[in-house]
Amino acid sequence: MTKASSMAGPSRTAGRINRRSKSAGPEPYDFRRPTNLSREHIRTLQIAYETFARQFTTILTTSLRAVSQVTLISIEQFTYDEYISSLSSPTIVAKLSMEPLPGTAIAEFSLAIAMTSIDHMLGGSGGPQPERPLTEIEAPLLNGLMDRMLGELRYAFEGIASTRPQLTGIEYNPQFVQAGGASDPVIVASFEMRVGAEECVMTICLPFGMIFPKLQGDRNDVQLSPAQRAAREAAHRNLVAGMESVPLDVAVRFQQMRMRPEDLINLRPGDVVTLNHPTTQPLAVTTAGLTFAHAVPGTQGSRLACLVVAPAKEEDRR
């Protein structure tokens, strides 16, 4: 899986954007951590983030009086540690609350873009910017721009959840941001962000547990046409019918017993191994290690068989 990372310099940032936009080959898949977002979820987020990108483009252009552009690149799932490790330092890492949703979201973009935006707000023409923390005069200017950005984020997400995004703090080193556990899954949206001649990849990181329940609810509340409902019901019937015909390995088992290694090694044909299974207790019928029925042994014609019976009562097992 390709990670997102933010670069401060224009040339390095441009190279990164090109790599992300042109990557169309196969990607590694970790079966230990399957992706839980369906295509419907991705599409729902894509619509919201594309709306946000258009609105934020307008905010930047009118506020900075400079040609600006914000374009959605991708929506991907990472762990929190993978996301934080992919970010450069220093950078702008804005911590966001999304009340009433739980958790902390993150909006991240390059320090160079932040300084260029502030320069335009102060009447400058952009150009090379110093790489340093914001001053007491510059910080409120960026906070004001961020507040307007969060207003557009709230508007874009109205179709998914009613939220009140608020800026709760800004860090310059991603490692100092504690917004989740290292293995917590997060959903990261990457945007190509341009302000004048400066460009970078901006990211918005949402905890998986924050947004996934809302995506599920949104999907369940979708109004379907009669044709869509009939197609979904037919697909469900076909799935159930297909699952009912899948062959499974079934075993009829006695209770487990313990033996010492030396006893196992010394076993010879004709030896008798005493089982702990009571004669009054039926055998367990299992599949994939799960017991789903009980049975007593028998025969049917020339074959061994078992008769499914009710499980033994607790007093019969004693």
Automatic annotation (TrEMBL):
Source organism (scientific name): Planosporangium mesophilum
Record's GO cellular component terms: bacterial-type flagellum basal body; plasma membrane
Oxidoreductase in keyword set: no
Flagellar motor switch protein FliN-like C-terminal domain boundaries: 244-308
Name of the coding gene: fliM
Protein name per UniProt: Flagellar motor switch protein FliM
Classification via InterPro entries: CheC-like_sf (IPR028976), Flag_FliM (IPR001689), FliN-like_C (IPR001543), SpoA-like_sf (IPR036429)
Keywords per UniProt: Bacterial flagellum, Cell membrane, Cell projection, Chemotaxis, Cilium, Flagellar rotation, Flagellum, Membrane
Disordered: region residues: 1-35
MF terms (GO), sorted A to Z: cytoskeletal motor activity
Listed Pfam families: FliM, FliMN_C
Similarity field: Belongs to the FliM family.
Membrane topology recorded in Swiss-Prot or TrEMBL: Peripheral membrane protein
GO BP of this protein: bacterial-type flagellum-dependent swarming motility; positive chemotaxis
Protein location: Bacterial flagellum basal body; Cell membrane
